[in-house]
User: What shape does this take?
Amino acid sequence: MAGSGLLGTPAAAGPRRSAAVTRRRPVRDRIRQGAWGWLFVTPMVLVLGLFMALPILMALWVSLLHWDGQSNPFTGHADFVGLGNYRDLISSDGLSRTLFATSLRNTAYYVLLTVPAQTVLALGLAIVVNQRMMRGRGVARTVFYFPSVTSSIAVSTVFLFLFQGSGSVNRMLSWIGVKGPNWFADPRGVVWLVLGDLGFTDPDHPGGPLARHGVLGLSWADWFSGPSVAMCTLILLSVWTTSGTFMLIFLAALQGIPRSLEEAAALDGVNRRQLLRHVTLPALRPVVFLVLTLGLIATWQVFDQVYVMGKGAPGNTTLTPAYLSYSSGFDNADYGHGAAIAFVLLAIILPLAGLQRWVLRERGGRGRRLRRGGRGPLRAPREEVGARG
Amino acid sequence: MADERPVLGRFPRPARIAGRLALCAFALLYVLPFLIQLATSLKTDPDAAAHPMTLFPGNPTVAAYRRLFGAGGGVESVPFLRWLGNSAFVTVAVTSGRVLFDSMAGYALARLPFAGRRTLFVFLLSAMSVPPVVLLIPKFLVLKSFGMFDSYSGMITPLLVDAGGVFIMKQFFESLPREIEEAARIDGAGVPRIFWSVVLPMSKAPLITLTVLSFQGSWNEFTHFLVSTQSSRYDTLTTGLAHFVSGGLGGGTQYPLKLAAALLSTLPVAALFFCFQRYFVRGSNAGSVKE
Assistant: This one.
């Protein structure tokens, strides 16, 4: 559960009322309730404290060490390197920095393509599936949502089969006369690939002069290469699995738009496109923002698919910071380095989560409408999604 | 039920038909991978490699499934039953823990006045924003220090409480009318009794939502099991399949077997999904997003 959006309805009304009620009650009763309260939250405090807060603190310490995972890192014998692990990632020239920059580049393209695609697709699907007169829309909703509930490992396995060199996708492409690439083995960036095909660049020396200079140990040609062909399959997989979830969020919001608003617009004689542009989309704005930030937060963490679909290969073009953090620790026994990567990743993601909270809080008026429509984490959308249609 | 009439007139007939066709084609993109998966799992290795698109295998065979269930007849088999057993065991343990502990904590945060409740709620919200992949190495570190690495307790305990679930339950309990609990209190019922015999029976819908989400979450969990275990005897369906698939990068080899294993591992969640679809929907509207 990464980041939760439709919050902002904390116990605003609760405590005030409870104070009025409890004042009448004997003090002893209150104390007893307080004791039960602590007892009831103890499991939560223990689990979240020991397996979420404590690990973060310990990892913060380990990220300052050179630790191979064997000895106890909390004794005086630990090999303290200060900010060395972070320097290796950001400022000192070397393989670690190049790898890290590569993983950032890969993920940036992944995020840049996945987030808009899944948002637009989900919104489009929601609008279509929300058509009141459409037959079979329940089935359609089920079909689009189903991939979201399956295991990421299982669907990655399926995609691995579909996108093989001689797999289903290339077979289908061959029907329309296109020779598909060898998806998972193709490290070429799509920007240079397209420019090369159009004759703008020399395919043997993509990037030309840009290949000579760079930043963070990666040449400009590499930075601007775009996602590799292999990365494109991960992007497709991600859009395919997440669009259903986001479609449901949009659907709930669409059903929360007051019908009177649409009817008033219809009386004014708007056509379908005007209704969409001037009534529906403005009403959905906070939800679009919610979906965008949820997408941004989730895509920066991509890990499972990378693990199954190549572990960074080909040519490190599917390497992501999350996977790099894992493999530095578990494959190269350099846990300090891995922990440092995790914290840099955290530094990228936390502002996004903060931004989401902040905007949802700032837009009081709009936020309230959003809450009425979608508040309900537990209030089902007005119409239940059902295979029964 | 809201007024079902559309606000604007219907599309003209040709546009409707075109739209319907486009939607069907698009829906096919979402269904086809699963159909291909099913078809391929019933093929032989050479057949799967030669005809990746045929939905009706010429000579259907259940050899892949036989191998998964240990009836390979000499061929080295995959420890699928062990994966299945581990997944089932861990999922049942985690789901029961989450349903109990999440609703207890949610009730306390919603109703019981105790010192530090505000702070705990802020703590809960922060816990919800911690990105799970950042915890990979940190979790390993803690499990190792506690001596829980590579054990069932290390796989289960950290998942027993889920911040999102606590949040869902808290929101629900706050929406309940207080009067019933007050009446029970006046009748002399204590907190545990009110919680167990009054509040929980009124909370069927959110409890089902929580059960369904916890089941799905722990059945599909991958990263936590990846960093909390090492020996293959603790492999679950996700880690086992992931090791199997990513380790044997031998091109088109054994795809029927891999796809059959993936298919079987999807079935329980799929069954749950088709029975309790609306509870999944509620969960996803609570803002939880799978990636």
About this structure: Residues 287-291 of chain B have pLDDT under 50 and may be disordered. The two ends of chain B are 33 Å apart (CA to CA). Residues 86-249+266-285 of chain B form a domain with the MetI-like fold fold (CATH 1.10.3720.10).
